[in-house]
Amino acid sequence: MYSIIGGIAFLNIPKCGSSTLRSLEVHRAQASERYRYKKRVAFMRHPNERFQSGYRFFNKTKLFVPKECIGNYENYVDWALGSDDEHVAPQSNFLTLYGDDTVTEILDISCMTEYLESIVKHPVDVMNSTIQEPLNNSYRADDIAMRYAKDRELYNVIR
User: Fold this and answer.
1) Which of 5, 62, 123, 158 has the smallest number of CB atoms closer than 10 Å to its CB?
2) 134 within 8 A of 52, measured Cβ to Cβ
3) Quick one: which of 61, 47, 66, 54 has its CA closest to 143?
């Protein structure tokens, strides 16, 4: 799914500003419509930051996650590593969903507000943003790193 803003198609990746994009969109485009837009952009976050943001999201909303994961990082990790939920799926799955032409540009999420404001010409409210204090937990860190290895490679290229 793409949010169309200022004639640009923005790929919606959960936990990568998708709520902000949807709040600004003038049209929501299906994948089959992406060819109408010469510029197709995606925002990407560091995989560890996104994974931990997913944990905070589920703790806050209590949606889509088994109740034993709420407030228990280790249970969340076990669930997330075996889940196909879009909030914990690798970003690379979305970036290559429709082949090599899914997007024409990948940007670090840290430039999202400035980039969008240059298009819409007014201040942009960042939706669902929370204080991102790191979780100091090494539980299954190697498994997490393995699942998101392709994301880490892509992220290192755009940084």
Assistant:
1) 123
2) yes
3) 47
Q: What is the pLDDT of residue 129?
A: 67
Residues 6+ apart with CB under 8 A from 148: 47, 48, 51, 90
pLDDT at 131 over 80: no
The rounded distance, in Å, linking the Cα atoms of 87 and 84 is 8
**Which residues touch 93 (CB under 8 Å, ≥6 apart)?**
none
- Averaged pLDDT for residues 22-27: 93
- Average pLDDT on 44-49 reads 94
Q: Burial code of 94-133, b = ≥16 C-beta within 10 A, e = fewer?
A: bbeeeeeebbeebbebeebbebbeeeeeeebeeeeeeeee
The pTM for the full model equals: 0.90
**Residue-level length of the chain:** 159
